[in-house]
Amino acid sequence: MQSGHMLIEEPVRLASVLAPTKEKFFPSLTKIVATLGPKSRSVETLEKCLKAGMSVARFDFSSFNSAYHQETLDNLKKAIENVQELCAVMLDTVGPELQVKNATGEPIVLEAGNHVTITPDCSKAASSEIFPLNFNGLAKAVKAGDTIFMGQYLFTGSETTSVWLEVKEISGEDVVCEIKNAATLAGPIFTLHAAQVRIDLPTLSETDKQIISTWGVHNKVDIISLSFTRHAEDVRELRAFLKSHNLGDTQIFAKVEDFEGLEHFDEILQEADGIILSRGDLGIDLPPQDVFLFQKSAMRRCNIAGKPAIITRVVDSMVNNLRPTRAEATDVANAVLDGTDGILLGAETLRGPYAVDAIKTVSRICGEGRDGIQPATGV
After folding, report:
1. What strands, in cross-sheet order, belong to the sheet with 162-171?
2. What sign results for the dihedral spanned by CA atoms 342, 343, 347, 348?
3. Which of 102, 180, 328, 352 has an alpha carbon within 20 to 30 A of 306's alpha carbon?
4. How confident is the model over 134-173, as pLDDT tens digits?
5. Domain contains 1
6. Is 67 helix (H, G, I), strand (E, B) or coil?
7. What dihedral do alpha carbons 9, 11, 17, 23 form, nearest 10°?
8. Same domain as 208, residue 178
9. In this structure, are residues 372 and 8 in contact, taking their beta carbons and an 8 Å threshold?
């Protein structure tokens, strides 16, 4: 075996995988960030989440209002006191998110090959033929041939609840698209993402500033996840804003999730306290074969800089299932071996019925990932 290669100890290690997993005295060093929501906000469930390995509670302001999140946080504080486990609080900003509002809430059925128009005229009702968007600059940003992705849960990868659109023509402020896959969009709001297209909206929106200056200040949040960080200046702007509101100790984790953030990654890394690699969004801006290349390269840069890195979209199948796929479990372990400092769970804990199991499962995989592979001793 060449020096520097890794191997699994044999024969003891291979035989040991058949034995029941032993509880470790020391927990995994990889932190679990859990997004709190409808399925994970009661005191009882939060106690179980903390015992299962949740180290950071994420409050995503893309969903629900401040009052809802405050009630959840108050429950978390009770759970922390009851089980005597520490847990940091992360505020996730909305950022320049594009949304199509479906006022009726009725499902919209889309057929492949048909055309749909995206318009900034929000007085129009969403239908299979028109999507009213909360942004009037899309027609200037895209061109024929560009790809647009849209859905209620945008980055689940499900072809039945999200839709791929190809821009066909620009008509004034409207964008006419061809539907590339049959889908049924359900819910009151659909999120829209245009692949490798710069959206002329501020990274730190006025809504974000209002949330931070009220909810964030009131709760003295530990971490702010800055969604759609595209430039180092985005981090500097947020840091100045935090200092002006007596939140100088709050850490900033830059969420890199599009091609602009990728292009300016090294500068962003210098300014941020940590990085979140948002693989869901990146999976739209990048072809699948390039996502893992960016992940490994970015992870190495974070490790060299001595700054924590968190990855997302690891066990999506656990939104609906008790166990992850084999590929997902291996993905988590490989991320740990590459130096990942944290795993972020989104829909798995936000709305999935197996929130506690998702945390417990990922925590166990992280623990095995740290201990299961040993350096080769041969030369």
Report:
1. 98-101, 189-194, 147-151, 162-171, 174-179, 115-119, 130-132
2. negative
3. 328
4. 999 999 999 999 999 998 765 555 556 789 999 999 999 9
5. no
6. helix
7. -60
8. no
9. yes
